[in-house]
Amino acid sequence: MRPLFLSLLLSLFISCEQPKKISEKEVMETFNEFFYSLDNDVDKIRDYLSEDFMIFEVSRKWNTDEFIEFVKGFGKFESKRDFRNIKIDTDLNSAHISLEHTGEFELEKPTPDGSTFLTYEWLESAYLIKENGKLRFKFYFSEQIND
Question: How many domains does the chain have?
Answer without folding.
Answer: 1
